[in-house]
Design a protein that fits this description.
The chain is an all-alpha fold and 442 residues long. It has 19 helices and three strands. It is 73% helix and 2% strand. The relative contact order is 0.10.
Length: 442
């Protein structure tokens, strides 16, 4: 049965399969496209409010005309959705109610009115056969040729508008004041963006439904955000994730009878989000964990090198150092110190002999740089009166791993010019050893 359904889907011989597939693809792609702007504009829940605000319009359009034609119902949804946005803007602009509360009020009130009207529709005349309840959870399988034409026209208008006003939307998101200086009205640009989001919601109402359409706006866009820092790439990726969700959702729905397409599309979009959140190369959880682990290891190794240099200063000798000596200096267990020593030996920064560690020429150079970074930053904090001498150690311990040779040169110049200190003679400001911070920082 599954094989037959799969072959039937892949052949695209069934007109209903073609309608559902193309409709789901359009909904997913346009949802991801506009969702990118909604997420970056911090209007993610506006789409949810618009979807719920559209429900009364669908019911009223049916009661007024008695027609279930998609253009009629979507016109009612558009009017009701725009009214919801106007009410929401009125509450935000003329009351002390915050935006999130205004969205919650509009969402709940309009949805409540919609449910009441749908209940009334089911009780009058042939209302029980109207099928308007499908707008709650969506029914992609009910799409027909005429519905697809309407959705295609609306999707085309959305894509055209985004292409024409992409730069204006980008400026609105990142610097609305700059947009004003170019002669554009931020208010009207924002209104156009909200109108396109409303149009996107309306496109997906029949297939995905009022309850789930917000997920098709938000989830692909959030998934795309993990992969890139550039807006145009994020928009394209979000559209791709949304389109993929539509295609795969339709395929799974075709394989398994009576599984609705809309909820499966949302689940596939959520899977894209989970994969992106875990495996994105720079912003993903695993990438972040690897950076923290790398930073923690690098800091611990630099602490080892610094401990070797400072111990040699105290002992006035360059002899190999025992693990126990280093453990006391660093405040770490001997096993941990031994493990760090082996790691540095692999990098040829230290040599190991008879259970003792000695710095190589390369290790000495690296260790001296870390010590210098630490002490210069301590002196800078103290002489600039940022912190007292007994409070500068920990901040310097954190910053020493981040200082570059260029920053070191600037610190030397400042201390020499302002305080008359010879950078070559910078010593431990405390006169004794200091503590070593554990853990990693990005």
């Amino acid at each position: 049965m599954l094989v037959e359904n799969a072959l039937r889907f892949l052949s695209l011989a069934d007109a209903n399969v073609r309608f559902v597939l193309l409709g789901s693809l359009l909904i997913g792609a346009t949802g991801g496209l506009l969702g990118s702007f909604a997420v970056l504009r911090r209007r993610s829940l506006v789409g949810d409010a618009l979807a719920h605000a559209a429900l009364p319009g669908v019911a009223l359009a049916y009661l007024w005309t008695g027609s279930k034609a998609l253009p009629v119902l979507l016109t009612g949804a558009a009017i009701s959705g725009v009214l919801g946005v106007l009410v929401m803007q009125f509450i935000i602009n003329f009351t002390r109610v915050k935006a999130d509360s205004a969205i919650g009020i509009v969402l709940s009130v309009f949805f409540g009115v919609g449910i009441v009207l749908l209940t009334h529709v089911q009780r009058v005349g042939t209302g029980n056969q109207s099928g308007l309840d499908k707008f709650l959870f969506g029914q992609a399988a009910s799409l027909v040729d005429d519905d697809l034409r309407v959705m295609s026209v609306l999707a085309g208008l959305i894509i055209l508008a985004v292409a024409l006003f992409f730069k204006e939307f980008k400026a609105l998101i990142f610097d609305a004041d700059f947009l004003q200086t170019l002669g554009y009205s931020a208010r009207w640009t924002d209104a156009l963006l909200m109108g396109l989001i409303a149009l996107t919601v309306i496109v997906g109402l029949q297939a995905v439904g009022v309850v789930l359409i917000a997920a098709m706006l938000i989830t692909p866009a959030v998934a795309a955000r993990f992969w890139t820092e550039q807006l145009h790439k994020m928009v394209l990726l979000a559209a791709a994730f949304g389109g993929l969700s539509g295609v795969v959702g339709t395929f799974i729905s075709a394989l398994v009878p009576r599984v609705p397409t809309g909820p499966v599309m949302v689940l596939i979009a959520t899977l894209c989000f989970v994969v992106s959140a875990l495996f994105a190369p720079r912003r993903g959880v695993l990438a972040r964990w690897r950076r923290l682990r790398h930073n923690s290891r690098r800091e611990s190794q630099q602490h080892f090198l610094r401990a070797c240099v400072e111990l040699q200063e105290k002992l006035a000798t360059s002899r190999p150092l025992a693990v126990e000596e280093l453990a006391i200096e660093m405040g770490l267990p001997p096993d941990r110190v031994k493990h760090l020593g082996r790691q540095l030996a692999d990098k040829r920064l230290v040599s190991q002999q008879d259970g003792r560690f000695a710095l190589t020429a390369l290790g000495t150079e690296e260790g001296l740089f870390v010590v210098k970074s630490h002490r210069l930053w301590e002196h800078y904090l103290y002489y600039r009166a940022i912190l007292d001498a007994d409070h500068v150690d920990r901040p310097a311990d954190e910053v020493e791993h981040l200082l570059t040779p260029e920053i070191i040169a600037q610190l030397e110049d400042i201390l020499q010019r302002e305080q008359g200190l010879d950078p070559a003679q910078i010593v431990n400001i405390h006169g004794t050893g200091s503590h070593y911070r554990r853990g990693g920082r990005e």
